[in-house]
Amino acid sequence: MKTIDNINQKYLPALSRIFSPVVMDSLALKGHSGYLTEVCSNSGLLEQTDSSMPLAQFFDWIYNILFKNYRNEYIYKNAIANKILLGKHSLNTSHMLTEFRVGKCKADAVVINGTSTAYEIKSEFDSFARLESQIKAYFQIFDHINVITSNSQSSKLKSILPDAVGIMVLTDRNTISTIRESKSNKKNINQVTLFDSLRKEEYVKVVEEYYGTVPNVPNTQVYRECKKLFSKIPSETAHDLTMKTLRKRNNTKVLKEFITRAPASLSAYALSICNEKKKMRALMSNFTSNIASVIIPKLA
What we know:
alpha/beta; six-stranded mixed sheet; two-stranded antiparallel sheet
């Protein structure tokens, strides 16, 4: 079996789960993770790790190993968070939503600033089987749609995707290269699909902002009446008012503090838990802890 930096290649999928709730929730709640300890021990990582290494630095180290050898979906999401949301925009003017529901699909990442841009990730481990239905769904509510993939797969996309869909590549230099620019789709927005992607407080806010009031009906009828009104808002206006509202979703002071203090490898994870303030604060308190205090004693 091939080894990578003295790590058996078969452990890479397990290592990639370090950036998932399996590990992060446990670190936040208990200050340690049994899964993290086990995978580090079994893979031989502990033998290569300086026990005084801070946890934040450890995460970046693992991330770099994965970036070079196992670019799964999380690697792509994190690149979008760092290179586009935080690199081209800022948390003061923009926000990024992950796994955003669109009908029966979920958009991997959506960056909202003055408009909306969806990013569908197709890593080296993904097929294009569902891509057509995903893009068709995204056309109903987003202004710009991009598919981001590896360099080896980018040429296949040109013949598959509609001309309006952008194509991007995550390069080996950890940059995002645009192969084809996306085109505005705002005039084709479907108000009903857009409405059904929102939380109650969000669609009520859009209706109130457009009409100056909300339906004076019993709570059981709010959804139905708001949907009727929302569907009559001009499509481009409905899109713009919705994105103005979504930009505020979970974009908290704690998130900004977390992003400032967290290692770059955790940007995408931070955005996925940005409404969980207690968890973010607990994780922040562990960033300076050394590996010895988080992992090694748990092996005894």
